[in-house]
Amino acid sequence: MLELERDGEPGGSQEDLGALPQQDQRRMAQVGVVVDKSEPRAGTFVQMDNEVKHYSARDDGLEVTGIRGALRKYDRLKEYFWKAVPADKDEFTSHVAGQPANGYFVRALPGAKVSYPVQACLYLASRGLTQSVHNIVIAEEGSDLHLITGCTTSTARNSGVHLGVTEVYVKPGARVTSTMIHNWGPEVDVRPRTAIQIERGGVFVSNYVLLDLVRSVQMDPVAICAGEDTTVYFNSVVLAPPGAHLDLGGRVYLKARGARAEIISRAASTGGTIIARGYIEGEVPDVRGHLECRGLLLAEGGSIHAIPELKGDVPGLELSHEAAVGKIADEEVEYLMARGISRDEAVSMIVRGFLRVDIEGLPPSLAAELRGAIQMADKHAL
Predict the structure, then answer these.
(1) Is residue 191 a contact partner of residue 220, using CB atoms and an 8 Å limit?
(2) Which residues partner with 138 through β-bridges?
(3) Domain that holds residue 71
(4) Tell me: the pLDDT tens digits for 9-18?
(5) Would strands 129-139 and 104-108 be described as parallel, antiparallel, or unpaired?
(6) Which of 291, 310, 328 is the last residue of a domain?
(7) How far lies 374's CA from each of 243, 302, 355, in Å?
């Protein structure tokens, strides 16, 4: 069991993020959060440890603030607080519920098409700290929002625990694209708890990327398709070096006609352990769901356990799954070598292709960072 430290009241805010040390700015940039205005952003939120450092919104159709201030400002926000994720779900949600409210509140106003991504950084600056976060995202009817959440530490050798509760509400006809990039460290344990409620015609797209060493991650986000013609996509690309234990998944409940879900994961182990879960349940006719998990073992000592689950409660639905775990095929390497490519480069090309990240709406600098991270994975495969 993890040891969780209790934390006091957060401090004040820092308006000028450009005043942050260069090392902090570089670490944030690696997970898609830029403070130097080199990439356009519709809004920004930064929390370091349990202190909100900055929040701002540059789009008229957008609100970005700390969750504590939002709870004071909007009495109705209590209707969303701890509704999608129960406070007593497990020991980690109970710990967050017992702390002063920290985290971000992001709201796209009705009909707003937020022009650029909103960026949020959850930054572990102090060694041995438990970071407690509670986020709420609301996309009002007909709105469109892209949120990039970058989670990282001040140094690659930092230690601590990150507890993140996120509740997302997608109103009728709204669309939310959530891209989460983790870059932690070998002594960090991560426990996100996320739930998404989607109303009629809403779309939720989740992209999760983890390509650097972390001690452990355990997450199983839940999406509820409560309205007709709703759509959910969970996409994940993860790499587990030696010493990492990743227990990752996604659960979708199709509760209304015309609902659609797809859970796609790419998992590669260079010595770490990966448990890749997926669950889709169809509760009414005329719903569709598909699970796909592909695992690649690149080194001795690694382990990948794929657990796809489907449940159909009525006739007239369509659910399917594919799962495969294996090594790099010799014939693929030989095919490339026959065309004059060295064995090492052939293996690298196959790994890069397997882990290729194609995420809609990423700024060029972040897309380049992800390509670089995938190339760095080559060294573990050789």
Answers:
(1) no
(2) 107, 169
(3) 17-328
(4) 344 455 677 7
(5) parallel
(6) 328
(7) 19, 18, 7
